[in-house]
């Protein structure tokens, strides 16, 4: 099966991290340091590296996550449902300094 890549700006990088992982890690960094679902993958170092170098795209990606298909968002490996991912993304968009 071919790898699904998001077709919007920076989509390759978001695909590398995973949309749900991206929201989970951003939520941990900006809102709740106790949130830890993002830690449930073996590739944390490579994903955090991509996250750290793509900060200028984070707000744009959070807006795209709110538009994503719930079924696809539910296929993550970190135990978050689409509704929770979208709630966190919306909360992050209201976070000053993001």
Structure, described:
The protein is mainly alpha-helical and 98 residues long. The protein has one domain. The radius of gyration is 12 Å and the shape is globular.
Key terms for this structure?
single chain; 98 residues; mainly alpha; 6 helices; 56% helix
Helical stretch tally: 6
What is the general shape? globular
Q: Helix/strand/pairing class, anyone?
A: mainly alpha
Radius of gyration: 12 Å
E-strand count: 0
Averaging pLDDT over every residue, what do you get? 93
For the record, give the distance between the C-alpha atoms at the N and C termini, rounded to a whole number. 35 Å
Which blocks of ≥5 consecutive residues have pLDDT under 50? Answer: none
Total count of domains = 1
Strand content: under 5%
Characterize the largest beta sheet: strand count, sense, and whether it forms a barrel. Answer: none
Helix content: 55-70%
Order of helices and strands: HHHHHH
Question: How do the strands and helices of this protein lay out in sequence?
Answer:
Elements: H1 11-17, H2 19-30, H3 44-53, H4 58-67, H5 70-73, H6 82-93
Helix pairs in contact: 1-3, 2-6, 4-6
In short:
With 98 residues, the protein is an all-alpha fold.
